[in-house]
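User: Hi! I'm working on a homework problem where we have to compare a predicted structure to a textbook description. Could you give me the structure for the chain below?
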Amino acid sequence: MRKATIFIILIMIFNSVIGQNLNGKWILKDVDSGNGKKGYPGFQLLEINGNKVDIYMDFSLNEKASTLKMENGDLLNYNNEKTSKYEVVNENHIKWFVNGKSNDKDAVFEFDFYYLMYNQINSNKIINIVNGKTGDVIYQEHTTVS
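Assistant: Happy to help. Predicted structure tokens:
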């Protein structure tokens, strides 16, 4: 019985942490600067492919601002140095934690990214941004592709 329980727990851990598929585009909704107030610093989009994270800061998506690597809750730069941490809240919501300063005090900035869903059905293009906490659609656009 004990071996079966340990096996089940290991499967649950493996499926919840390692088994998550984060591939796709994630858009920034807001940032908490450590003082409890949320704000919007401007457009930021993460494109995740495997353990690689490309960061874009303009709508054209022509130029990457940076590329990081995801590894066990840490984000690493090209020298494999830890730059920040991330947490998967659920399949639609990632929190990114960056150490910095706010009003000359040490602070941890908390970035809320939400999965950007893109569906194309026949000649219809549908874009949805979903709130990872509630599952509600925050933004939706529907166009016909010719």
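For your comparison, note the following. Residues 3-19 have pLDDT under 50 and may be disordered. The radius of gyration is 18 Å. Good luck with the assignment!
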